[in-house]
């Protein structure tokens, strides 16, 4: 079946079966086009709450589907491709952090939303890349253990120098591989372009950017800016989506390696099979896990 016909069939089936499709911004364009909502992981979880459908299909990676389930325990939540995990979220588990915690007595444990539901149950507060600085500033405790992303953690520590922020050596292998040499090459190739970078990149790349922000902040900045050209330092899909959204502007990926294979595991056929009831993986979490992880996310909502 060709792409447009497959998309039409998915739209027909999701309506007939009362399914809300959520697509993370790093998904391919043909999936974003048939989604009820697209955006970053936190935006999607919140959108799932307002959606009237009882069933939610997440096109993204596992921790995102878990977050949707934690915030919407009454809904049936599927991950479109059950093999789609996030390497960063899987770098640190609950047992590791429980073992490390005695080394950080009295510290507030701040978890990036890119963590498993099980790990969130023992953390104090969640953050997203867009809310991390604001939330860490608001915490009463001056001592913070930030996990798992040491690059985002370094960015936060530089913005909030009054806090004592300890980092662990985790991070996104996709964003972390962007080099200063690639920044210099892109600057030379596109001298009129602004460089917009995600804080999951290494500090030496982040400090060379004109704008640092989450995926949604980068998209909003580029759309609102009067500038015409942008070098995009986050997953390749964002430059592509922006090219469609702002056809009068030019978007250049900072690196051809900014491709997340985990995000790209999900195909339109996976979505089709899931809305047919013959694919996807239902996210099942224990009630205690949902309740404990929810405390961590609710604190983020309260402070963010
Ligand atoms: S881009 Fe990085 S953080 Fe995002 S899903 Fe892929 S590996 Fe995980």
Question: Please, could you describe this protein's structure?
Answer:
The protein has helices at 3-16, 29-32, 41-50, 62-71, 94-100, 117-120, 132-138, 150-159, 180-189, 203-206, 215-224, 236-245, 268-275, 287-303; strands at 19-24, 37-39, 55-59, 76-79, 108-112, 125-127, 143-147, 164-167, 194-197, 211-212, 229-233, 250-253, 281-282. The chain has 14 helices and 13 strands. The longest helix is centred in the C-terminal third of the chain and has 17 residues, at 287-303. With 304 residues, it is α/β, with parallel strands linked by helices. The chain is globular. The N and C termini lie far apart (44 Å). The mean pLDDT is 96. The strands form 3 sheets. A 5-stranded mixed beta sheet has the order 2-1-3-4-13, with helices on both faces. Helices cover 41% and strands 17% of the residues. Bound molecules: iron/sulfur cluster (SF4).
